[in-house]
Structure prediction request, 149 residues.
Amino acid sequence: MISAIEEGLSTRKAAGRFRIGIATAGRWYRRYRETGETVARKQGQPSGSKLDPHERFILGLIEETPDITLAEIAERLASAHGVRVVPSTVWMFFDKRGVTFKKRMARPACKRFFDGVSVCANVSGLGAMIVPGQDGAYARTDPHKDVGV
Prediction:
């Protein structure tokens, strides 16, 4: 394609002859003029993460504070190292290394009664019933909602 343009063919006609996009043909020819490169460049995203150099720092954070959030890790990276990332980038960093940790909220204890009905203490302490529905799914009902308590 580059030799065809060098021989006088327009970029548009060279793109049509080689069945590539006009912008692609222009970009390849421009790169050839500027750098002399004629080989294809590697495709895809670059391997690695911009967090790789900060691995010790990040792993130290979760060792120091096991319940730290991804957003807090991103904030600490920005303040300590000037690296700005979103929480999903931090998650991908951990996922690539097989590091998992879950933040579990305290859940109220449920008491199971007859016929698969459970009563759970809710935040207000009034209780809620979890009953099986007709389709097999469970529905949560608040027995005090209609009473006005």
